[in-house]
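cron nightly-structures :: item 1 of 1
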Amino acid sequence: MQSAQPFSVGPYDALLLVSFGGPEAPEDVVPFLENVTRGRGIPRERLEEVGEHYFLFGGRSPINDQNREFLAALREDLAGAGIDLPVYWGNRNWDPYLTDTVRQMKEDGVTRAACFVTSAYSSYSSCRQYRENLADAVAAVDGAPVLDKLRHYFNHPGFVESVVDATLTALAELPDNVRDEAHVAFVTHSIPLSMNDGSGPTGGAYVTQHRSVMAEVVERVREETGRRHRHELVFCSRSGAPHVPWLEPDVNDHLEQLAAAGATAVVLVPVGFVSDHMEVIYDLDTEAMATAEKAGIVAVRAATPGIDPRFVAVVRDLLLERAAAEEGATPARSAVGDLPACWDRCAPHCCPNPRGERPALGQTDAAPATSGGGV
């Protein structure tokens, strides 16, 4: 007889990693981008233009390999804690597709799974769209398991501490004569202003959550170094029609403005990303670094959490927290900074779909009891 697990995973008999997906060969690039932009009417010529970013790296996104590394680290973390739970992986836009993974889970006898999404913040594209994808996958598979999306983790200590240490390491890489006066640019994916305005239960959560993490990291860095570096939240990867306003400033514009103001050094902290996928290796490591060099600014890019053991352990903590809650307990919810831990289920109006209402998993009929910004 198998011995009882040291931690209760409650109603869950599986864990599902949910991610964006990416092409793994040159011939995958345009079909992948068609998946990403389906329904938006973007011409193929524009997709081919964007695809050139991938061809700079052999026509292959690094995100799937990073997910494979994360899965291996996650399975090791769970096993080390004595948690015997199968871990599956499904993507929004490329193989392994969510529907195929959910079908496999059903065939394997899974009845209920907790879902960890590789996006830490509240917005349509970073939360509700994944919940719609999960609803689509469940609807497509007869007898599909129940899927519960785990809460946002932007202010979980395991995520924030990895960002703090990455920022400190990047600062230490700067030359001594520019380090103390270096600026810190916290970079995340831009979204339309309207999407930010609708994010969270009462709006504005996307920016509010990022600013909360930024403030916490800056303070922790000050505690370690004795200096409060000048800092700003900036954005990358803008897309869409030029007449639609998106969050600004763009990271490249910000770097040029810093140079014009006499700045000599900057650390780019990809606070909106959990691994070194295309927005990091192209938008920051390639494009932004070229802008900094042209502007005469010394720039260093901080690492993403990746497979930092503290970040990997966030999944286990959220799993056990949610399992306890589903069994009727009131678990402690880890969070740092000026915002409380987020809710388990989203309000129906939270992060609305800009193209119209669609079914989404993980909703409640009532407003969440706790807030994660914008309330």
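cron nightly-structures :: done
Residues 194 and 246 are 8 Å apart (CA to CA).
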